[in-house]
Amino acid sequence: MTDNNKFTAVPDKNGFFGKYGGKFLPPQLEKPFAEIIESYNRIKSDASFITELRYIRKHFQGRPTPVFHARTLSLENGGAQIYLKREDLNHTGAHKLNHCMGEGLLAKFMGKKKLIAETGAGQHGVAVATAAAYFGLECEVHMGEVDIAKQAPNVSRMKLLGAKVIPVTHGLKTLKEAVDSAFEAYLKDYKNSIYCIGSVVGPHPFPMMVRDFQKIVGIEAREQFFDLTGELPDVVCACVGGGSNAIGIFSAFLNDPCELIGVEPLGRGEGVGENAASMTYGHEGIIHGFKCYLLQNDDGSPAPVYSCASGLDYPGVGPEHCYLKDEGRVKYVTCLDTGCSDAFFKLTRLEGIIPAIESAHAIAHALVKAREMKTGTILVNLSGRGDKDLDYVLENWGEGS
User: Fold this and answer.
1) Range of the domain at 348
2) DSSP for 219-252?
3) Residue 118 and residue 52 share a domain
4) What is the pTM of this model?
């Protein structure tokens, strides 16, 4: 085990991961966020809170999710052996419920009556709506019109669960605008509500808090992989938009001699507005109350972004990812839409697992990396299932070859 304790000692008391993160808020939100920080710090080590969350994870979410050896995919690919952490089998179909149930439990502890959230691919929206139903809370989900059209099944699920879905009609009508809209709604009703941020982004304490709730993915995966193989994986790979699923699995391996790889969406190419590869093409900037690598226009404003994956088309990225990049602990690479499409169909046809388009980015790079390595093992966080994407896939990619 390497001496990398500095990687697990962040953030500092002000929410900074090195020079990234923090809390840049309008004055009226300083007190509400201080209340969230105080409440979370009070309950995160409370035995009754932990006991209830463990009960929820086991008996409601269906955790632990398994690690699966994708034997046929590995054989056909002709390289290292690929294993999948099956977060697609977590209740609601993705890793998102891991932090949403924690945030819902925190809201109940704080006496809040309503959960407000944004969503891109819809999985976070479904998870928040599920948590609200479980805890008996109101729910309001803000979603860009473009994503509403792409993710119709998840929109229906949110409404069935009792959530009010707010269409966002300004700007590019995708994830960044949905976050803007949700923040505005929270600003108007922070006394009765809590904003359930959907990734390891936003003002402190959310990058820390969402990471803490997502750590269960890495804790399970590390133990399961060792039980299966008698060793740790050579490579751990995950897709990165905001970065919650990646931080969740990376967190358990930061002190191990494993190569950690985050895969960003290169979309249609390198041009501005053609991708959402914040770590690759971004520069330091502030968005939605925190500092991170940010895709920017010449005037410093957030640049337009694109990805075939609605859950990855965000111009910023979690501050802990920025810190891990600068420290050289995690390598960040990109994947084109075409590579994502190819991996989507390969996993579907060879293993009978339909991945979320977001997760297919990680599968795509794992296939490339496995061929380069020739031997060894790669653990991929399969962060979600692709039911939500079927209409989009059939319309844009057909039925595969």
Assistant:
1) 64-94+216-396
2) HHHHHHHHHHHSS--SEEEEE-SS-HHHHHHHTT
3) yes
4) 0.96
- Structure-block tokens of residue 318: 């979690």
Amino acid (1-letter code) at residue 101: M
Number of structural domains the chain divides into: 2
20: amino acid identity, one letter: Y
| Contact criterion met (CB below 8 Å) for 10 and 324 | no
* Token code pair at residue 196: 């359930």
Do 388 and 260 lie in one domain? The reply is yes
Average pLDDT over residues 319-333: 98
Identify whether residues 109 and 89 lie together within a single domain.
no
Condensed to tens digits (0 to 9), the pLDDT of residues 215-272 reads 999 999 999 999 999 999 999 999 999 999 999 999 999 999 999 999 999 999 999 9
Could you give the residue numbers annotated as active site?
Answer: 96, 118, 383
Q: And the tokens for 45?
A: 């080590």
- Residue bearing tokens 């979309």: 267
List the one residue out of 63, 13, 75, 86 whose CA is nearest residue 359: 86
| 238/268 same-domain check | yes
SS3 state at 376: coil
Encode pLDDT of 31-58 as tens digits.
Answer: 999 999 999 999 999 999 999 999 999 9
| Placement of tokens 């053609």 in the chain | 274
Give the type of residue at 378.
I
CB 126 within 8 A of CB 310: no
Of 166, 185, 206, the one marking the end of a domain is 206
Q: Specify the CATH number for the domain of residue 37.
A: 3.40.50.1100
On the CB side of 391, how many CA atoms lie within 13 Å of its CA? 10
In 4-151, alpha helices (H): 27-43, 47-56, 71-77, 97-110, 123-135, 145-150
Q: Report yes or no on 18 lying in a domain.
A: no
- Whether 180 and 299 share a structural domain: no
Q: Which H or E run includes 140?
A: strand 138-144
Radius of gyration of the chain (CA): 19
From the list 352, 347, 382, the residue with the least C-alpha distance to 65 is 382
| Strand, coil or helix: 148 | helix
Domain assignment of residue 13, yes or no: no
Residue 239 lies in a domain: yes
- Domain limit, last residue, from 148, 175, 206: 206
